[in-house]
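User: My collaborator sent over this chain with a note saying "see what the structure looks like." That's all I know about it. Can you take a look?
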Amino acid sequence: MNQSPLIIIIGRQFGSGGGKIAQLLAKMFDAKLYDSEILNLAARESGYSEQMFKQNDEHKSFFTAIGATLFPLRTTVMTVRNPGQEESLFQLQSDAIRKAAKEGNCVFVGRCADYILRDSPNVVNVFVTSPLQKRLERVMERHGCDERKARKILSAKENRRMEYYNFYTGKRWGAAESYDLCVDSSVLGIEKTAELIASFVRDKMEQ
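Assistant: Without extra context I'll predict from the sequence alone. Here is the result:
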């Protein structure tokens, strides 16, 4: 492994356990974990309210949706910026991610970090998935709700992530070609899936 920091990026289906796996990987590699923490960092660096970033977290705003309809070329929409628009917040968050990636080993969860850091060395992109029923069970447990409510929560979260990722990266969220490794966390369980990913990361870095 060279001297550049190790960067592990975890994309995940909602309810797949990707967040927990990211926590375990951060411990294994003595890395800083950036999940919602990146929002705090972006707020500190930019001077904008942390609440503003939280409200727009992994969310393609109404303005953006209207803009995409009126101006089909993504580059046209992206050039129209002001501090109140989602595009500006995405740029500020991107700057915070790039800065954090230079400061040491790190694990990022979502937020298009794979695209933002696509030119950085020592990057491993992983997507964590799981069968729908398993994810529904995890959502029901987490939110204390029935399956009907869990389906609504899961659908809303995943649609938001997909739209956000696809819009800002020009790629397809969850598509295998966008990642170095795609893994079903239900096969081995959370801890062993983290170990599997860790082994993959070590092998990839040795190449």
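A starting point for your reply to your collaborator: Strands lie at 7-12, 32-34, 106-109, 123-129, 181-184.
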